[in-house]
Amino acid sequence: MLATEPLLWVTKYRYPVLKGDIKKRCRELIIQVCDAEDVQILKGVVSKDHVHMHIEYPPKITEEMVQEYLEHHRDPSNKDSGSMVLE
């Protein structure tokens, strides 16, 4: 039986920074990490100041592990800065 959870990330001070190319790249990276970690996105929206997702994942991993995968995934296209996907 798969577990389902809603997830929400909010930008610092709710600054509207998730737009244009940043929004596209954020979405791509979330999909990439979820695919690599056997997490299925049931619904998801990247808004200008937050990300909403409803995910499904196997019981062998916990909700905390899923959040850690997503929050600590480094953007491979930006190796110099070491920027995080979501901070």
3D architecture notes:
- The protein has 2 helices and 3 strands, in the order E-H-E-E-H.
- It starts with a strand and ends in a 16-residue tail after the last helix.
- It has one domain (about 5-70): 2-Layer Sandwich (Alpha-Beta Plaits), CATH 3.30.70.
- It has a 3-stranded antiparallel β-sheet, covered by helices on one side.
- It has helices at about 20-35, 65-70; strands spanning about 5-10, 40-45, 50-55.
- By secondary structure, it is of the alpha+beta class.
- About 30% of the residues lie in helices and about 25% in strands.
- Mean pLDDT is about 85; it is low at about 80-85.
Key features of this structure:
alpha+beta
| Sheet with most strands: strand arrangement | 1-3-2
Assign a percent range to the helix content. Answer: 25-40%
**C-alpha end-to-end distance:** 31 Å
Shape: elongated
The gist of it:
The protein has 87 residues and is an alpha+beta fold. The chain is 29% helix and 26% strand.
Question: What topology emerges from the helices and strands here?
Answer:
Elements: E1 3-10, H1 21-36, E2 40-46, E3 50-57, H2 63-71
